[in-house]
Amino acid sequence: MPAKPDPDDSKKEDAPHYLGHRERLRERFYSAGADALSDYELLEMALFPALPRRDTKPLAKTLIKTFGSFAEVVHAPVARLRDVEGVGEAAINQLKLIAAAAHRVAKGEVNSRNALSSWNEVIAYCRTSMAFADKEQFRLLFLDKRNQLIADEVQQTGTVDHTPVYPREVIKRALELSATALILVHNHPSGDPSPSQADIQMTKAIIDIAKPLGIAVHDHIIVGKSGHASLRGMRLI
């Protein structure tokens, strides 16, 4: 007597091909960790909740090819993401949620520690916050006498290659917050974090106004896609 067909066999045949791939990717992620996955594979997984009925592998590869890396994809401007075929609002929301989570985690590390003794966390936070922005931003980290963060504010947002900074406004805000130290941060959307002569002059102008008031300027950090530069570390201030 012939065996009765297994009703689950038809379900397996009808199942989309990518479901098995998703399961294998999840298994590798949980057994070997995120470092075992390439950028596009991690991006595939990130898009699973947003695109539950689609193979996310082709889209992940397209996004990496378009923007360059996982970090650049999640920080890409919404308008540019919308230009990529196959990217809808659900995918954009998922990517921006990941970017926001990364920012929140990095900020938590800075909030809970002395800024100068956790310099790597400060750099990581600055890069997460600004390195992939498409316009220049000038950010201020206000510190108390224990070098713990009082406030983190974006003072100015400019164009792709210029941000107007007013030293007296910087110091005025520091006095309002009773800050005793500052870390200046801005980004270079070009990707190259090398300081310009204008960056150096502006930093020195802020130091000259801050010093008589008992406010220290610990550093001016410039971040870009390719890394960061510290004016203090370069002995430019």
The radius of gyration computed from the alpha-carbon positions, rounded to a whole number of angstroms, is 23 Å
**How much β-strand is present in the residues?**
15-25%
State the end-to-end distance.
Answer: 89 Å
Overall structural class, as computed from helix and strand content, comes to alpha+beta
What does this structure look like?
- This protein is an alpha+beta fold and 237 residues long.
- The chain contains 10 helices and 5 strands; from the N terminus they run ααααααααββαβαββ.
- Strands 2-1-3-4-5 form a 5-stranded mixed sheet, sandwiched between helices.
- It is elongated.
- The protein starts with 6 loop residues before the first helix and ends in a 7-residue tail after the last strand.
- The mean pLDDT is 89.
State the gist of this model.
The protein is 47% helix and 15% strand. The chain has helices at 7-14, 18-32, 39-47, 57-67, 70-74, 78-82, 89-111, 119-130, 167-176, 197-210, and strands at residues 137-143, 149-157, 181-187, 216-224, 227-230.
Fold topology:
Elements: H1 7-14, H2 18-32, H3 39-47, H4 57-67, H5 70-74, H6 78-82, H7 89-111, H8 119-130, E1 137-143, E2 149-157, H9 167-176, E3 181-187, H10 197-210, E4 216-224, E5 227-230
Helix pairs in contact: 3-4, 7-8, 9-10
Keywords:
five-stranded mixed beta sheet, 10 helices, 5 strands
